[in-house]
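Handout for the seminar on molecular recognition.
Each group receives one record of this type.
Step one: identify the two inputs.
Step two: read the structure output and locate the region that could contact manganese (II) ion.
Step three: write two sentences on what you found, then compare them with the reference statements printed after the record.
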Amino acid sequence: MAGSSVSGGGGGRPPLFATEKPKRVLAYRLYAGTIFAGILLIWFYRATHIPARGSSSLGWRAGLGLLVAELWFGLYWVLTLSVRWNPVRRATFKDRLSERYDDDQLPGVDIFVCTADPALEPPMLVISTVLSVMAYDYPPEKLNIYLSDDAGSAVTFYALHEASEFAKHWIPFCKNYKVEPRSPAAYFAKGATPHDACSPQEFLRMKELYKDLTDRMNSVVHSGKIPEVPECNHRGFSEWNETITSGDHPSVVQILIDRNKRKAVDVDGNALPKLVYMAREKRPQEQHHFKAGSLNALIRVSSVISNSLVILNVDCDMYSNNSESIRDALCFFLDEEQGQDIGFVQYPQNFDNVVHNDSYGNPINVVNEVNRKII
Ligand SMILES: O=c1ccn([C@@H]2O[C@H](COP(=O)(O)OP(=O)(O)O[C@H]3O[C@H](CO)[C@@H](O)[C@H](O)[C@H]3O)[C@@H](O)[C@H]2O)c(=O)[nH]1
Ligand SMILES: [Mn+2]
């Protein structure tokens, strides 16, 4: 373990996580200090080079705009300097968690995925995120996945229904071959090759199933019509009629995978996580409070259906890129000494839906590789 560590634990047991000082604090301080010095120099330059009164009004306005931007950036840097100055790292001990808790002793986890607009957030992307969280390395009997669809879209419901079937193949594939990331869209987009012990035939079979699903979804998204095939006889589809719009619809709650039903197993015969579709009621005259409103409704609905101790929330465009995230979070929540003081664990976001050549620097590599590593 690097540097000095302030740890959790308790009752003579080793802690489930440690808070460590990273080794290269001086390098980080130098990095933070040079940027701060640069900011001071810019402010000094601005203070000593105020455009003369007589200069063009465009020059004045541009100068003022730059000054405001630089002041804001500088202020932001100063506010966040505190964490850069005294950086810490958190390390979890998932092996100790597994030693201390059998699968049936682990707490239930309710996972909330939010979506709001099938045009901006394509259903294929939404279900890839749902599949990534269904495939967490966690006992499926303890997992309950809720998709909140603020648009109340039949196409999104159809997509989730398709995902509930695809999951029967995808989850065992991920678990048997330790696939990462577990979002099929991200996995196949990265030009994945067969994993250890996964025969090329098995890999190609999965890829083919995924392609079939994508083709089916594309044609439904394109036509906007749900196919009239026996698979779509789920009673949930009867909730929709011509009067329903994204901004004006009644509430819909449908349990698509229910552990109490015998068919809720994957192709290997293992249990599947519970899967729930939810669209809260929306009316044009009533404020819906965006994502916060949907989380509120999710808490109410999940408290009746599964009421788990732990809640995990992801946006529909933020798939899970680490199948052990739940176990990581539990190391904080279940630590005997410090767990009681921890109510919230946040993971950093990584972006990979970037434009060609990443002109906008969206993957925020510096933040992830330098700043966040040490927070
Ligand atoms: O009426 C709404 C509007 C949005 N959302 C969902 O809220 C999430 C975030 O919305 P988005 O438009 O994608 O915002 P971003 O700027 O991409 O998200 C960042 O900023 C949001 C708040 O500003 C945070 O809630 C997000 O977690 C964070 O990733 C998405 O899953 C949406 O589907 C709803 O559920 N209902
Ligand atoms: Mn988003």
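Reference statements: Residues 92 and 328 are 6 Å apart (CA to CA). Residues 114-116, 121, 148, 150, 290-291, 294, 315-317 surround uridine-5'-diphosphate-glucose (ligand 1) (CB under 6 Å).
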